[in-house]
Amino acid sequence: MGFPGLWDRAKGRQTVVAIGMAATLGAATAQAVRPQGEQPGHGVKTFDVTASRFKFEPAVLEVTEGDTVVLTLRSADTIHGLAIKALGVKLVIPKSKEPVSVRFAASRAGTFDISCSEYCGSGHRRMKGQLVVGPATAR
User: Which has more confidence, 102 or 14?
Assistant: First the structure.
């Protein structure tokens, strides 16, 4: 009696592999929700940023060290990108005006350059912004 195929070794392996894959995907998803370095009790700073030829609006984003930063980005015209190389942040902003988001921890104080990471025309190199991360003691 029992369940057909329950004791079949080949099927048992398939079940274990499927369960292992589900656990791995669950762990990866959980890790994506809380960025590495994010600390409980710090603030979450959200910004809506518009990318257009050849600027980010707003161009300067100010947060405090330890904050979680959530950027929701839209393009006003063509494909753009956003990169904060010093913090390992990079994403593509589609021209469809559909929002894309990125979440990361402002893990250290400083002023970090924001640049367009997708060629968007002759002014591409001028498309810059800054992320200003104030020290945690400023709270």
Answer: 102
- The whole-angstrom separation of Cα 104 and Cα 88 is 9
Q: Which residues contact 91 (CB under 8 A, 6 or more apart)?
A: 73, 81, 82, 100, 102, 117
Q: How far is the CA of 136 from the CAs of 18, 43, 53, 67, in angstroms?
A: 44, 11, 34, 9
Question: Which pLDDT tens digit goes with each residue over 97-129?
Answer: 899 999 999 999 999 999 999 999 999 999 999
Of 134, 131, 135, whose CA–CA distance to 58 is shortest? 131
Q: How far apart are CA 94 and CA 87, in angstroms?
A: 22
